[in-house]
């Protein structure tokens, strides 16, 4: 009789080929440990939730900050473009209106000084250069001696050679002088370049121009970088960094030049990690950078994260303390119950548990005592029932087995030995001996069924498997049984059942299956099996997105072959046609006979419509080869209708109908050819 496992019992061994588990096993993970682990796991999930939520908020704030810096940089870029527009407008005005007195530099000096006095303080100098590069006017006073020449300066060479605004930066005219950016434009009179006018602006004052309201926090930086990666201006330590390479490689620099605006993070020249936005000037290839320190920007977020994590860890510690106290109140009576059950398992049925509580544990102790009173009587009844069953089965021709799980032995009756071709005698084997005579494909399912019965997952054990006969062939066995004895802890001790030879039944089932699914004449799948395979192929194509093609084949003038050579020749023709169709396709493709001289071919995984057309051509060629039918050489041909599974199509009948319509069209066009359905091939 099957007895239910106690709440405190240990699970049955998961390997049926191991010896019986020990009667007394140490507790590796008790209730107290499990409760602490559960509390720790739940608390950890809470802490993890806090950490993830904090990280998500930090990520959101960081992204928001990046968006802000992108906008601030765009605004600074607009201000730079406004400044460059003013410079360009000034140069155009000077180029168009300034009188060029190449022989009167002092007069030009006076005119330019008067002009600069009216310009913003960011403009340092306005100069006029003759076509040979000599200075013929400047708003700045030169020291005694010859005037400077710009013939070898980049801005002058570029201005002379091309129209439009040119620039050179950073420029320092003499040692210790200010860093400037020089903008130049050539002066054209009567289609001739007669001079170059230039404006020099102070680079150190540009950050203030780009952030006039000083709204950025401490540690923020505004910088300008040219297309070569050089720093042109910087709001912090400008003199130290102007002209130095920016901390960015050429690839990133070019990408940002192309993007025009964006945001990123990196560590600056001063070692400070910043989030910055960048924007490209529309006038010249300069990038404006506006960055603020990450620590400053996210200080409040980091503080909240530390407070939240500290709170979560504190709650976790409190939960573990409470769980330990509760677990102690539960495990003490359970340990006593475990000791009581161990004594009962050893056969001391006179023992009674003295655990007395008002909880479910007290109910369990009461149930354990009642079980002890009835256990001996039930075991005795089970043994008597097994003996009666053995006698009855021996007379029925079935083999009896008795698996002593506790001692790891299986006892077989004399009939079991004859099933394997051995002498009629009782035998006893080890469970691991099953590996020697059970079919390898059936061993794992057999063990799974036995394990379910041993664990109590199923009331009865039932399995069908093959065993090796002594002459080498396989014998089908139907095995049935049940666990008839368990110990006080619920562990299975004995499993008793019967084995019967069902090889004839299996052979009959296989014959019926072949008749139901395969054509008797050609051995090909019949219409029923074809419909199943086509439906499965459509479903696979729908899931995988791979193409599916169907060929509908009909033998041309088949009736005339029957009439001229007889039905036997017609049958032989169909068999030869089936063989040639099979030889013309892949092993994974399905060739079926629907009825009479109608065949179908299912092609899965078609990569291109041409692949299916190639198969159709091979079928036509294969069937054109003459056949030897009843002593006569007969030439036949076929007509083929080809259809592809359309995009979104799920109905196999629709695909078959379109292939049939394509076949009809092929016959209408004169036979001995293939025709494709007009529905488009479904691209994957």
Distance between the termini: 60 Å
Chain oligomer state: single chain
Helix content: 40-55%
Main beta-sheet strand count, sense and barrel state: 6 strands, antiparallel
Query: Which spans of ≥5 residues are poorly predicted at pLDDT below 50?
Result: 1-11, 18-24
Strand order of the largest sheet: 13-12-11-16-15-14
Shape: flat
How confident overall, as mean pLDDT? 81
Strand content: 15-25%
Helix/strand-derived category reads: alpha+beta
Report the strand count: 23
Number of helices, where a helix is a run of at least 4 consecutive DSSP H or I residues: 18
Rg, alpha carbons: 47 Å
SSE inventory with pairings:
Blueprint: H1 31-97, H2 105-116, E1 123-130, E2 135-138, H3 154-161, E3 166-171, E4 180-189, E5 192-202, H4 206-210, E6 221-226, E7 231-234, H5 238-241, H6 250-259, E8 261-267, E9 273-280, E10 286-293, H7 294-297, H8 299-345, H9 360-396, E11 399-404, E12 409-412, H10 414-419, E13 427-429, H11 434-437, H12 440-455, E14 461-468, E15 474-486, E16 492-501, H13 503-517, H14 527-544, E17 547-555, H15 558-565, H16 567-583, E18 590-595, E19 598-606, H17 609-624, E20 627-629, E21 632-634, E22 638-644, H18 652-668, E23 674-676
Parallel strand pairs: 22-23
Antiparallel strand pairs: 1-2, 1-5, 3-4, 4-5, 6-7, 6-10, 8-9, 9-10, 11-12, 11-16, 12-13, 14-15, 15-16, 17-19, 17-22, 18-19, 20-21
Description:
- By secondary structure, the chain is of the alpha+beta class.
- It has 18 helices and 23 strands.
- The chain has a 6-stranded antiparallel β-sheet with strand order 13-12-11-16-15-14, with helices on both faces. Strands 2-1-5-4-3 form a 5-stranded antiparallel β-sheet, with helices on both faces. Strands 7-6-10-9-8 form a 5-stranded antiparallel β-sheet.
- Helix 8 (299-345) crosses helix 9 (360-396).
- The radius of gyration is 47 Å and the shape is flat.
- The two termini are 60 Å apart.
- Mean pLDDT is 81; it is low at 1-11 and 18-24.
């Amino acid at each position: 009789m099957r007895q239910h496992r106690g709440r405190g019992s240990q699970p049955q061994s998961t390997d049926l080929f191991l010896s019986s588990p020990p009667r007394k096993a140490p507790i590796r993970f008790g209730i107290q440990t499990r409760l602490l682990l559960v509390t720790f796991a739940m608390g950890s999930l809470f802490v993890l939730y806090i950490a993830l939520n904090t990280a998500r908020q930090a990520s959101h704030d960081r992204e928001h900050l990046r968006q802000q810096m992108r906008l601030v940089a765009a605004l600074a870029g607009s201000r730079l473009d406004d400044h460059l527009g003013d410079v360009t407008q000034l140069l155009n005005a000077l180029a168009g209106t300034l009188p060029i007195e190449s022989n009167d530099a002092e007069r030009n000096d006076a005119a330019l000084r008067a002009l600069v006095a009216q310009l913003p303080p960011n403009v340092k100098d306005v100069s006029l250069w003759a076509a040979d590069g000599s200075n013929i006017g400047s708003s700045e006073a030169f020291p005694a001696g010859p005037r400077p020449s710009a013939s070898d300066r980049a801005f002058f060479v570029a201005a002379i050679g091309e129209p439009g605004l040119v620039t050179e930066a950073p420029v320092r005219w003499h040692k210790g002088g200010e860093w400037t950016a020089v903008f130049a434009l050539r002066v054209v009179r009567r289609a001739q370049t007669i001079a170059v006018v230039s404006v020099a602006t102070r680079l150190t004052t540009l950050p203030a121009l780009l952030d006039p309201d000083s709204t950025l926090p401490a540690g923020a930086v505004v910088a300008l970088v040219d297309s070569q990666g050089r720093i042109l201006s910087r709001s912090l330590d400008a003199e130290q960094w102007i002209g130095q390479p920016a901390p960015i490689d050429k690839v990133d620099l070019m990408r940002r030049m192309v993007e025009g605006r964006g945001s990123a993070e990196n560590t600056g020249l001063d070692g400070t990690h910043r989030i910055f936005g960048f924007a490209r000037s529309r006038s010249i290839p300069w990038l404006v950078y506006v960055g603020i320190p990450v620590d400053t920007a996210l200080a409040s977020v980091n503080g909240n994260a530390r407070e939240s994590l500290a709170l979560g860890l504190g709650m976790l510690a409190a939960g573990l303390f409470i769980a330990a106290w509760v677990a102690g109140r539960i495990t003490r009576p359970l340990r006593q119950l475990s000791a009581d059950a161990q004594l009962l398992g050893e056969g001391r049925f006179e023992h009674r548990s003295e655990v007395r509580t008002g909880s479910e544990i007290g109910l369990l102790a009461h149930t354990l005592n009642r079980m002890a009173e009835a256990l001996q009587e039930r075991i005795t009844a089970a043994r008597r029932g097994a003996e009666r069953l053995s006698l009855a089965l021996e007379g029925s021709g079935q083999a009896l087995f008795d698996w002593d799980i506790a001692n790891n032995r299986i006892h077989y009756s004399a009939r079991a030995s004859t099933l394997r071709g051995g002498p009629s005698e009782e035998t006893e084997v080890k469970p691991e001996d099953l590996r020697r005579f059970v079919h390898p494909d059936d061993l794992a399912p057999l063990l799974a069924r036995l394990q379910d019965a041993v664990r109590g997952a199923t009331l009865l054990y039932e399995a069908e498997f093959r065993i090796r006969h002594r002459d080498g062939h396989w014998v089908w066995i139907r095995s049935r049984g049940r666990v008839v004895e368990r110990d006080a802890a619920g562990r299975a001790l004995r499993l008793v059942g019967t084995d019967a030879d069902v090889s004839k039944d299996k052979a009959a089932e296989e014959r019926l299956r072949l008749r139901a699914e395969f054509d008797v004449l050609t051995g090909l799948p019949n219409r029923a099996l074809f419909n199943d395979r086509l439906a499965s192929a459509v479903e696979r194509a729908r899931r995988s997105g791979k193409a599916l093609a169907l060929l509908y084949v009909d033998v041309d003038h088949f009736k005339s072959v029957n009439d001229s050579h007889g039905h036997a020749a017609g049958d032989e023709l169909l068999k030869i046609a089936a063989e040639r169709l099979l030889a013309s396709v892949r092993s994974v493709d399905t060739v079926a006979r629907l009825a009479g001289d109608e065949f179908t071919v299912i092609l899965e995984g078609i990569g291109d419509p041409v692949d299916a057309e190639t198969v159709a051509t091979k079928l036509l060629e294969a069937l054109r080869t003459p056949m030897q039918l009843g002593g006569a050489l007969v030439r036949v041909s076929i007509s083929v209708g080809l259809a592809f599974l359309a995009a979104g199509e799920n109905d196999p009948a629709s695909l078959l109908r379109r292939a049939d319509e394509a076949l009809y069209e092929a016959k209408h066009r004169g036979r001995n050819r293939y025709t494709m359905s007009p529905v488009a091939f479904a691209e994957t």
